[in-house]
């Protein structure tokens, strides 16, 4: 395992320990709103700080992009490496005691994602990927599913709000699939596509920390990822499709008008 991924695993486990302890006393968790449907807790912030400290102890020169703290610049003016972290993806699930949430950590080198890790502290599952090395669940190699028909596939992702064109595309895709499963954690949904538990993913208006680690997992598990047109503008737009090579073109086709 690459040294950067080893540090990511150490950081994720530190964050996971904080989350697991807090899950036993949810009545003590402090919750505040970031937006109309967006929440943050003191546990998000504590887990994020634990990850930041783990990274800075090992790599003080590296930059870190965090969901809660924003961009933390390293000691170098133009750092080669940037860590992208979501300390607790699925905060609403966590608040309700629903055990679908995870820690996500990715490492980019000169703008390209090179390592990714998603840690589910409830199931003690660690999904990891390094570019050119493959994707793994704990120590077992994982692959995307081999389903090639939408009507046989389980689709996951975030349903867009309102009656926008994104929502129309999404429900058109769901109607053609075998079923829709929403986990409430984008990073887990991408990890499940990478491991073949789910077949396809659709997400609109996502942030870098939502997709950085999961995108590499999907690619290294033999899948494809792109925007709604099947192109590579998904990191800029936040509009993401992910699936196996057989299913991906069908997702793109279904997402069109």
From TrEMBL:
<comment type="similarity">
    <text>Belongs to the inositol monophosphatase superfamily.</text>
</comment>
<dbReference type="InterPro" id="IPR020583">
    <property type="entry name" value="Inositol_monoP_metal-BS"/>
</dbReference>
<dbReference type="GO" id="GO:0006020">
    <property type="term" value="P:inositol metabolic process"/>
</dbReference>
<dbReference type="GO" id="GO:0046854">
    <property type="term" value="P:phosphatidylinositol phosphate biosynthetic process"/>
</dbReference>
<dbReference type="GO" id="GO:0007165">
    <property type="term" value="P:signal transduction"/>
</dbReference>
<feature type="binding site">
    <location>
        <position position="210"/>
    </location>
    <ligand>
        <name>Mg(2+)</name>
    </ligand>
</feature>
<dbReference type="InterPro" id="IPR022337">
    <property type="entry name" value="Inositol_monophosphatase_SuhB"/>
</dbReference>
<dbReference type="GO" id="GO:0046872">
    <property type="term" value="F:metal ion binding"/>
</dbReference>
<keyword id="KW-0460">Magnesium</keyword>
<feature type="binding site">
    <location>
        <position position="89"/>
    </location>
    <ligand>
        <name>Mg(2+)</name>
    </ligand>
</feature>
<dbReference type="InterPro" id="IPR033942">
    <property type="entry name" value="IMPase"/>
</dbReference>
<feature type="binding site">
    <location>
        <position position="67"/>
    </location>
    <ligand>
        <name>Mg(2+)</name>
    </ligand>
</feature>
<dbReference type="InterPro" id="IPR000760">
    <property type="entry name" value="Inositol_monophosphatase-like"/>
</dbReference>
<dbReference type="InterPro" id="IPR020550">
    <property type="entry name" value="Inositol_monophosphatase_CS"/>
</dbReference>
<dbReference type="Pfam" id="PF00459">
    <property type="entry name" value="Inositol_P"/>
</dbReference>
<feature type="binding site">
    <location>
        <position position="88"/>
    </location>
    <ligand>
        <name>Mg(2+)</name>
    </ligand>
</feature>
<feature type="binding site">
    <location>
        <position position="86"/>
    </location>
    <ligand>
        <name>Mg(2+)</name>
    </ligand>
</feature>
<keyword id="KW-0479">Metal-binding</keyword>
<dbReference type="GO" id="GO:0008934">
    <property type="term" value="F:inositol monophosphate 1-phosphatase activity"/>
</dbReference>
<protein>
    <recommendedName>
        <fullName>Inositol-1-monophosphatase</fullName>
        <ecNumber>3.1.3.25</ecNumber>
    </recommendedName>
</protein>
<keyword id="KW-0378">Hydrolase</keyword>
């Amino acid at each position: 395992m690459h040294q950067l991924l080893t540090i990511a695993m150490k950081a994720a486990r530190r964050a996971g320990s904080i989350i697991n302890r807090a899950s036993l006393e949810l009545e003590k968790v402090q919750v505040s709103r970031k937006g109309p449907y967006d929440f943050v807790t003191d546990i998000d912030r504590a887990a994020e700080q634990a990850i930041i400290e783990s990274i800075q102890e090992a790599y003080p020169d590296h930059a870190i992009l965090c969901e809660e703290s924003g961009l933390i610049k390293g000691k170098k003016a133009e750092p080669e490496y940037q860590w992208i972290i979501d300390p607790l993806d699925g905060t609403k699930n966590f608040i309700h005691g629903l055990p679908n949430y995870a820690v996500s950590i990715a490492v980019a080198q000169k703008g390209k994602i090179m390592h990714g890790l998603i840690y589910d502290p409830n199931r003690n599952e660690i999904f990891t990927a390094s570019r050119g090395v493959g994707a793994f669940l704990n120590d077992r190699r994982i692959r995307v599913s081999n389903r090639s028909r939408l009507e046989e596939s389980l689709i996951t992702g975030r349903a867009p709000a309102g009656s926008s064109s994104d929502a129309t595309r999404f429900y058109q895709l769901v109607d053609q699939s075998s079923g829709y499963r929403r986990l409430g954690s984008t990073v887990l949904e991408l990890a499940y596509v990478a491991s073949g538990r789910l077949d396809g993913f659709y997400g609109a208006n996502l942030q870098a920390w939502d997709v950085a680690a999961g995108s590499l997992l999907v690619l290294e598990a033999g899948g494809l990822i792109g925007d709604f047109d099947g192109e590579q503008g998904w990191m800029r737009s936040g509009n993401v499709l992910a699936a196996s090579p057989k299913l991906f073109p069908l997702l793109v086709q279904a997402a069109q008008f």
